[in-house]
Amino acid sequence: MTVGRERWDSRTAFIMAAVGSAVGLGNVWRFPYRAYEGGGGAFLVPYFIALVTAGIPLMILEYGLGRRYQAASPKAFKSIGKGFEWIGWWPVVMCLVVASYYCVIMAWCWNYLYFSITQAWGKDPSSFFYTSFLKFKQATPTGTESLKGMDLHGFNWEVLIPLAVTWILVYLVIIKGVKGVGKVVMWTVPLPLLCLLLLFVRGITLEGAGAGIEYYLTPDFDKLFGPDGGAIWMGAYAQIFFSLSVGWGILIAYSSYMPKRSDVTNNAIITSLANCGVSFLAGFVVFSIVGHLAHVDGTTVEGAVDKGFGLAFVAYPKAISAMPGGPIVAASFGIIFFFMLITLGIDSAFSMIEAALGGIYDKFKISRRRACAIACTLGFLMGCIYLTHAGLAWLDIVDNWVNFYGITLIALFECLVIGWLWKGKAEFKAYVNSVSEFKIGVLWDICIMVITPVILILSLI
Ligand code: PHE
Predict the structure, then answer these.
(1) The pTM is what?
(2) From 174, 201, 300, 457, which residue has the greatest number of CB atoms within 10 Å?
(3) Pocket, ligand 1, Cβ cutoff 6 A
């Protein structure tokens, strides 16, 4: 039923919400560490290719589907063909899984916000993060060793309250429906961007920043087509899907709350470019800091800090402590940074739940209040596994699994079903063009039907 469907207050509210979902921890935490792992500049080339060939075309597709069918992902796919409903349910499940660990990372940010006041991480943020805070590494006779994933060991009680706070905030926002979301994003989108700009100015003026930025911007083509090239390409595509929130059913749900005749392509392009612009900017911030740390420690940029999950929780604290100007300046920067991460993350977190709820309302008649309570409690409980001492191993496994196999496969199916199997594609394109300023043509078909599926299949292989 389309009668009585909730609506955004304005186009700005919709764009802000879509940008809010896209711009999140993925830009400031995940993008830089993926880029650092993928060899800095070597990662940027496939990343931008993925943006143009997969990110923008799929976003146009999802906005178009949501608007046209006025339904969240499961029902929208069902409208395309009865047999395709499962393609719409799959991302709903993925959203809940991602939300469960995404909120844990936000909970760490609350802890770190508090640690910033005294710079509790001391001289060695890396061992503080892995050993003292997460208790993920244990002392062995020869040093420290990471715990294996299957054995849960102990529980990090100090993260439990921040996790509960995060879920309560998510609950309080989505309980009010899209109108509530539309109001909150007016704050949670611009505020962190201001913080990021501040950190950017500070970052690039640090000594040694140039070397980090050079590493970030210089592509290494040998790496891209070398033996590890497949992983870098796949990582870049997965990062685009994660970062743009494409393939997760979120954009279908969000755009279904727009009036039927509102622009599709322009909004998709604005959201994508805004999101990737923020990632690109965050890259400058992180790599200038990494460059600075390499300069201070007298090492290379490549080996300056641990690559991987901990980058944001190791590199930034190191930089915060190394900040000229004394402890008060350092504490202020720390607080700004972790506050920024929380505000960045919150709108992405509630978009995941909102997408899942959208699917549930369309299918089952259940009140918003009850559905929100069930989803948030479930997410909170699922998140508790990452609070165990082996939680980081679980987080890494689940993040990799969901992003590489879950979402990449959904995107692949989306391309194949829409591109090759769906008889209504031509009519859909005509619909999108009739409501949009910027028209899509054969290039869109080539991206959806050939380029994206071929690259995804090759990198999966
Ligand atoms: N796009 C968000 C980010 O970059 C994360 C996200 C993933 C949001 C999946 C919704 C769905 O942080």
Answers:
(1) 0.87
(2) 174
(3) 21-22, 24-27, 95, 98, 242-243, 245, 248, 250, 348, 351-352
